[in-house]
Specification:
This is Methylated-DNA--[protein]-cysteine S-methyltransferase. The chain is of the alpha/beta class. It has 6 helices and 6 strands, in the order βββαβααβααβα. The chain folds into 2 domains: 76 residues, Double Stranded RNA Binding Domain (2-Layer Sandwich), CATH 3.30.160; 82 residues, Winged helix-like DNA-binding domain superfamily/Winged helix DNA-binding domain (Arc Repressor Mutant, subunit A), CATH 1.10.10.
Length: 176
């Protein structure tokens, strides 16, 4: 008998840089966060991670919604309390967990990050895992930049990456 498909809640939340698609499970864990204009990309990512799944347009746990809105209002540490469940390989999960330890409002090169998580020779693999991150913002893949300080690759587009970094810097009283 085949396993039952995953069933997740899907809610759309407005943000200054476009509508966010928030995907959570019944236990109140964030499973994915992406952008409405890139919905197909998000669905492909979910299919890779979970296989057969069912998305129901229903509100996610209030704690997730409230934390995301607080982050957008400048309370940057609000997202630290969001429980996540990512799926993925052990290596991907280690990268995604490591991303959550990058202090808000700071950036790090892919190489420095790879060394930080104990994989200094895995810069390309780190980049690939970062690009496969299913939970933008909360798992802050936007905080990784090129070795020369340039903004490189972001699944939501470089204008959103720039906005997120500027938002975090401005909320801390700095400008980038």
């Amino acid at each position: 008998m085949p396993a039952a498909p995953f069933s997740f809640r899907l809610e759309c939340i407005e943000s200054p840089v476009g509508d966010m698609l928030v995907v959570a499970d019944e236990q109140g864990r964030l499973r994915a966060l992406g952008w409405a204009d890139l919905e197909e990309r998000l669905k492909r990512t979910l299919t890779v991670l979970y296989g057969d799944l069912k998305l129901q347009t229903r509100p996610v746990a209030p704690a997730i919604r409230e934390a995301l809105l607080a982050y957008l209002e400048g309370k940057l540490d609000a997202i630290d309390q969001i429980r996540i469940e990512t799926g993925g390989t052990a290596f991907q999960r280690s990268v995604w967990q490591g991303l959550r330890s990058i202090p808000v409002g700071t950036t790090m090169s892919y190489g420095d990050f790879a060394a930080r998580i104990g994989r200094p020779k895995a810069v390309r693999a780190v980049g690939h895992a970062n690009g496969s991150n299913p939970i933008c913002i909360v798992v802050p893949c936007h905080r990784l930049i090129g070795a020369d300080g340039s903004l490189t690759g972001y699944g939501g587009g470089l204008p959103r990456k720039r906005w997120l970094l500027n938002h975090e810097a401005a909320a801390q009283g700095r400008l980038i």
